[in-house]
Amino acid sequence: MGLVLGWTAPALITMVEDGSEPKLDNKADKDAITWIGSSMTLGALGGALISGTISQFFGRKKALIIYGIPFTIGWIILVAAKNVTLLIIGRVVCGISCGLLSGTAPSYVVEISTIDIRGLIGACFQLFVTIGILLVYVIGAFITWRPLAAVSMVPTIIMMICMFFMPESPSWLMSKGKLSEATQSLLRLRGHNSDTELEMRMLQQAEIDKQGEGFKFSSYSRRPHLMPFILALLLMLFQQFSGINAVMFYATSIFAEAGSSIEPKYATIIIGVAQVIATGIGSLLVDRLGRKILLGASGLLHVISLAALGVYYYLADKQPDTAKSLGWLPLVSLVVFIIGFSIGYGPVPWLMVAEITPTDSRAMTSAFATAFNWTCAFLMTKNFELLKDTITTEGTFFSFSAFAIVSIIFVVCMLPETKGKSSEQIAQNFKSSSSSSSSKRGNNNELKRLNG
Questions:
Q1: pLDDT tens, position by position, 28-79
Q2: Number of other residues whose CB lies within 10 A of the CB of residue 328
Q3: Neighbour-count burial for 256-266, b at 16+ CB within 10 Å, e otherwise
Q4: Which residue in 378, 380, 379, 398 sits closest to 317, CA to CA?
């Protein structure tokens, strides 16, 4: 997924060079360039909408294996592309897999993790996305876009092979009534010498809850499903309206336009390294400091770094001589921005959407939240150039900075903390005390009956 997200930054630079087929012009083909950059998000939107249905029908493990097929097809199309149309088609097909993957992988990770390392393992989803982005930046600095697409196919094949050896989600197996298989899966995950009885009872309890209510779309009219749904959408909104995908898709172009003293392709590698390191640190801190602290710090760094970038572009337009002496500022600003994103708004929303959502609506809410995420990503990447032309480049980054201020208010005032809490404890944030106590009494009686 990270390879798909980062591919356009080095690829678009080599597409304007002599010998590229097709050969693009930064000015004459601006619309085509924005479509190449943003079209994968449209595919991701479509993939996200069906990810819940596929993962619920086939299971998380089989679904993740299946997703490798459109990934591979998309890269093959890009390798063979001789015109803009095929480039866009290839990007859309790769995007479909990104949407499918991002709608399923976070849920799978949460469902196989223990509470004490759930944050760390959940954040690793974003960590490996950033590693993919860095990988494509490094390789793309030395080869052109076509062989870069061919190389990017390899991790997809490795993923498909590795998933064959992974256990299925115990929660999914339990939802299908496969008690013995769920037990075996849990033993594989926890170790055959582990005591999994309590965890199995909790999984049974979750299934009893589902049988008592039964999830339908009308369930979203009830607070336990509606509030997590709203929070999930807001988390994805603030993640994408930080401007992250616009920055990552056009990172090389941003440095070229800014006239930075550092060669653009190497500046993007520096950004990629900072992103991986910061995401790794964030992954280690998410279970220590909590989700809210990291999101708040993330928003604050966004405010500062994006405002600084806006100041640089303002000076570049009004006082070029002053801006020239600040050639280091775009790189520093974007590195700070990436660090801020990577410790909070990068990994935490994917983790929290799965954490705050009840088991029976998790697949559907994750699918909607992921689809909304990619819709926002498309709007930002497709219209990034239009925004710069309409409200100026500095105005665009100042707008991102202002939106980051709103994100901090959201985290402080609306978002519950999930660190170290079980699914049932998290769910209490969205239940009235009366319904919670009556439901608990009824479910305890049913659990005793099932266990003899």
A1: 677 888 888 888 888 988 898 888 889 888 989 999 999 999 999 999 999 9
A2: 12
A3: bbbebeeebbe
A4: 398
Average pLDDT value for residue range 128-145: 90
In 3D space, the residue among 356, 352, 357 whose CA is nearest the CA of residue 123 turns out to be 352
For tokens 């992988």, the residue is 105
Question: Cβ contacts of residue 132 below 8 Å, gap of 6+?
Answer: 1, 2, 3, 4, 5, 6, 155
**Strand runs labelled E in 69-162:** none
Domain 2-171+222-433 has CATH 3.30.470.30: no
Neighbours of 139 (CB within 10 A): 17
Closest C-alpha to 250, from 18, 30, 45: 30
Assess whether the previous peptide bond of 22 is cis (omega < 30° from 0): yes
Highest mean pLDDT among 146-155, 191-200, 318-327: 146-155
For 251-273, the pLDDT digits (tens) are 666 666 666 566 777 777 888 88
Enter the tokens of residue 83: 């015109």
Exposure on the CB side of residue 200, measured as CA atoms within 13 A: 19
Tens-digit pLDDT profile for residues 78-92: 999 999 999 999 999
Q: CA triplet 160, 165, 168: central angle to 5 degrees?
A: 95
What's the pLDDT tens digit per position in 185-203? 888 888 877 777 777 887 7
Write out the two tokens for 121: 């393992």
DSSP element (H, E) containing 270:
helix 264-285
Residue 257: the pLDDT is 61
Q: CA-CA distances (angstroms) from residue 93 to 39, 70, 144?
A: 9, 6, 21
Structure tokens at 241: 């309206």
Whether residue 340 contacts residue 298, with contact meaning beta carbons closer than 8 Å, is answered with yes
Which pTM does this prediction carry? 0.74
Amino acid 70 reads: P
Structure token pair of residue 447: 């659990």
